[in-house]
Amino acid sequence: MKSGSNLEKVLAAGHFSVTAECGPPRGADPDVVRKKAALVKGNVDACNVTDNQTSVVRMSSTAGCVLIKEVGIEPLLQMVVRDRNRIALQSDLLGASALGIRNLLCLSGDHQKFGDDPQAKNVFDIDSMQLIHMVKTMRDEGIFPSGKKLEGAPQFFIGCAVNPFADPFEIRVPRLKLKVMAGADFVQTQCIYNMDKFKTYMDLAKKEGLHEKVKILAGVTPLKSAGMAKFMKKMVAGMDIPDAVIKRIADEPKEKQAQKGIEMCIEQIQELKEMEGIAGIHVMAIEWEEKLNEIIGGAGLLPRPIVE
Amino acid sequence: MITGTPKPIEEILQMLEPYDNIVLAGCFGCVTVCRVGGEKEVEVLASTLRLAREASGKKITIKEVCLERQCDPEYIETMRPYVEDYQAVLSIACGAGIQFLAEKFTTTPLLPGINTGFLGVTERQGEWAERCQGCGDCVLHLTGGICPVTRCAKSLFHGPCGGSAKGICEVDKSVPCGWQLIIDRLKALNQMDNYCKLKPYKGWNSSRDGGPRRIVREDMI
I want to staple A73 with a disulfide (CB 3.0 to 4.6 A). Which of A13, A68, A115, A186 is the partner? Predict the structure, then answer.
């Protein structure tokens, strides 16, 4: 065991893992997190807590992680390199590990242009690839990147994100390979809607043997409506939603579209479960945590295994 | 070259509010090439300011001058004989030039007439674009001659990020994704093996983060 996290144990035992995510609130009220956590609890092996996603200021990811941990959910800390230099990153990693956070997702972070503070200075002292390397160095060698010895190495199951649908496609798998080389233990993918393209991506990844070196958790997001699908397709960079998927939900009357979205998500999870090289699922039910139980249960993934 | 853009005339007039006789100093260096602070711009700006001040009933005397370079002491010295006869100097050179004037003429207020931009190139007539951030540790041989520090909005060393779509950067539709450019070039040069390597963390101490920089060439001193 590299970290001893529940997610690592579940995956090591050969179970198909389940993660979800919880966005912290735009304020200091811990009850918002606790309420979301209550909807997540029991449905996942670990829950991501996002780090100022879309560059909109929110409660810190570490605080969110501690709050969900207090109610019995294993946290997965998202950490972006947009806002912290290597000094702050190392310090926050030590702090998070000391607080018992055992899973980490290394990200670059959306450009600050998209948030409420487009005039902010960004950092990007190191990039997400180098963050993976930094955490691995600290964990496995017990030293800071500077070479100085740590008094207690941080213990993290190290994750990264990949977007199989972003441009240019031909470097998508080489990029995953780089992240594995840097030290990633698991990867969570961007939301998948284009299953054909994802299969092509996985075939290329398998050719490189990457599915045996890193746990690949396939990302899904249930669509609430045809409007949401169209919006995401148009507005989110690197989001690939085939017209056939949009049509399927658009063909339903408005009041039944949400239910259809859930049904489609469950079908997709079942298909992903059977795909060679997929070790788990990452369900990003954005501001729809109340549906996690229905989706994950519907896909036959409940109850979650307990691995000692 | 160092590029720049003129400050809004209202802002300049506000700066000039306390003064009624000034020097307006241009520069024959970069700012002449990018047409923001040369001899011609001195002439046009001086006329504009005179007219505006006349209209507001508070005339201003402006001595027009254009130095060979505002970043070299010998040219700055040519201003010394008369600079104290004026209440202030408005410079339309780059920030380096303006500061060098301020350093040399310690009792005269220096006012910036342009906003200094970036180290860039003339892509076409009237359009300049950034190419270099002067980070002090060039890696262009590894990245197909395209700078990741400057051309990537996040200065990533292992791009592109998820914000790259169809070759365009998410920060602006007019900005090409730097990493798409790098990859296209590496492919064309048959150097994709450079992409598939982990790069060391960049030392920003050779960049501005090490504090104001200095180059000393012993062989020239």
Answer: A68
